[in-house]
Amino acid sequence: MCAEPAERKAEDGDSGSGRFGATVAATAFVLALIWLSTAVEEREKISSSLLGRWQGQREEQQTGSYCWAAVGAALALLLQRLWRLISKWAGRSCESANTPPAAVHQKTLAADLGALLQSGHSADVTITVGDSTLRAHRAILVARSPVFAAMMAHDCLESSSGHISITDIEPEVLSQLLVFLYTDEAQLDPRLVLKLLVAADKYQVHSLKEQCEYVVSRSLRVENAVACAVLAIQHSCSCLTESSARFIAAHLKQVMATEGWATAVRRHPERMVEVSRLVAAVSSDTSAYVIRSEGVKTVS
Questions:
Q1: Domain 102-209: what homologous superfamily?
Q2: What is 220-300's CATH number?
Q3: Roughly how many angstroms between the first and final C-alpha of the chain, as a whole number?
Q4: pLDDT tens for residues 197-222?
Q5: Which of 36, 241, 254, 262 is 20 to 30 Å apart from 62, CA to CA?
Q6: pTM (2 decimals)?
């Protein structure tokens, strides 16, 4: 591109001086581009290379021949650098086209679906919880919850009326459940996490149920350990059941002295039998481990 005006002048001009001047101008222009587009180290290498070439050929070749050699060398270096830049750009373009950042797209999808839930645009299902009314989309409810899918079956009243009435879940808990169904994300408020766990189990949202189990297991205390254990057994939460049993076994005297223990024995006697069995099993396993450890120490 830069050498094209010089070539036109060489074809139109008849004198050797015009051809020489055009060559020198093209060489200077190309060298300036290379000089500005390369790093300092590369500039030094190019300068020393061209200088060495010029000194080696000065005594053997005429000025015109040297100019053409310099032009060729400069063009070769420029084309090489342009090829590297084009290859790098093409590689990045292919990488971005073939392997899009999944995390970014997933976050955008969650945000878009969350905005859809909040706006209620094109909603075709109305959910009533006490005095609150929430609007949702049939397709998402069916895709995310087997229970909602059964409600939306053709022979069900909810399917024909587009209305679902819920009486055993608080509005705030149901709102968090819907947010998770749309976005696969949930704000696990410690005040509501147990109730959200129950709702997730009722509507068979297993991933949300597992997240709630994990949060509750991390927040076990002497005051709530029995209630969590009873709830875990009732809703078949294996991880939370094991965590609660181990916690109660480690703090048995303190837990049995709480009002929660007496209330659980009075209201849920069958489940408390299961809790006691699990705590005894954990305690026996711990005792057996201690005995084996002491026995090894004695032998050694």
A1: Potassium Channel Kv1.1; Chain A (3.30.710.10)
A2: 1.25.40.420
A3: 86
A4: 999 999 999 999 999 999 999 999 99
A5: 36
A6: 0.62
